[in-house]
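Please, structure for the following, as tokens.
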Amino acid sequence: MDLVLICYQLTSQFPKTEIYGLSSQIQRAAVSIPANIAEGKGRNHLGDYIRHLSMANGSLKELETHLMIVGRLGYLNLSSG
């Protein structure tokens, strides 16, 4: 859940031209991660849970890619330290 809040805070700093572009995509991918984990946990079948964990992992990889693009565009300094 903290990741979702961080992503919303970061995207609020983006240029307004990205409201319907990267900002939206980053927010949706970030929200999708805990949502899929919660939905899978709520299922009564292990296979469903595993499938939702896989979808959450896919959303995480999508978010990672979006953040790499953001870094290359110079919207944020993503280096640590």
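The chain has a mean pLDDT of 93. The domain at 2-73 is CATH 1.20.1440.60 (de novo design (two linked rop proteins)).
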